[in-house]
Amino acid sequence: MAASDQQPTGSGFGAKTTASEVVDGHDLTGVNAIVTGGYSGIGLEMVRALSGAGAHVTVPARRIEAAKAALDQLPGEIAVAEMDLADLDSVKRFAADYVGSERPLHILINNAGIMACPLSRVGPGWESQFAINHLGHMALTLGLEPSLKRAEHARVVSLSSTAHIMSDVHWDDPHFRDHDYDKWQAYGQAKSADALFANALHRRWSSDGVQAFSVHPGGIFTPLQRHLPEEEMVALGWKNPDGSIPEQVQKMFKTPEQGASTAVWAATSPLLADRGGEYCEDCDIAKLADENSQRWQHAREWICDEARADRLWKMSEQMLAEA
Q: Which residues are catalytic?
């Protein structure tokens, strides 16, 4: 089945399913997982679900002590290791250490990210949202290739977003060097890139037993919104002027436990044994958007385009090689 088919599986789960419900009945003993950003927000809930089902979870963290404090409360086997997605040397060290342990890696969830932040640059002048959300995770995944292939049956889950609808990749100027910076366009292109990366990765590595999926976790209030002022969230309709949450938003938004579920489903569901490369939402493969799709629903055609995915792969490989 082609990645662009975007045919739902009829999983039986939905928008309000929690990550713990997704893994209920799963025995993940002997499974090794890595979850970036796994010590806050939905990442913490992904770790809780996976470790609670028996997986050994490694959480790479820029803030080691904060990660340990957050993860100490969780059951199961959880390790913390130093890594900063904005620092490619740090990413390479983490990946090399993991590969050197000779452990197979069964699940990699590329969850960490930043959203709608003021313009900042990392590495060789890269725009930070594209660099951290996409390029850092691509470097991590490529560095972990031996461990993923050693598992024989591994899954990589890339956190995309409905924000992909805001923007395709700015192909001629992804780092906003020659045109005006817009924080939402930058976030949208990064989330499109995350989906395209999963598409390309699956087609390249599936013959070696590595599947890849991208997911939209849903609307959730987490530290991801830390760069948004209150007045902007009011303008977006996410909050009332008094700081309370509108009833309609409460119905649509998810708790962190619910927001973690689609990534955990993509990482563990037996329904996906013969699938890969697709974009998921609400614990299922998302439909391809059509004229009846709401503005926050479904997969837009450009994230299902294999030619775009291959173009991004080659462009990103070159950026990483030159960094």
A: 187
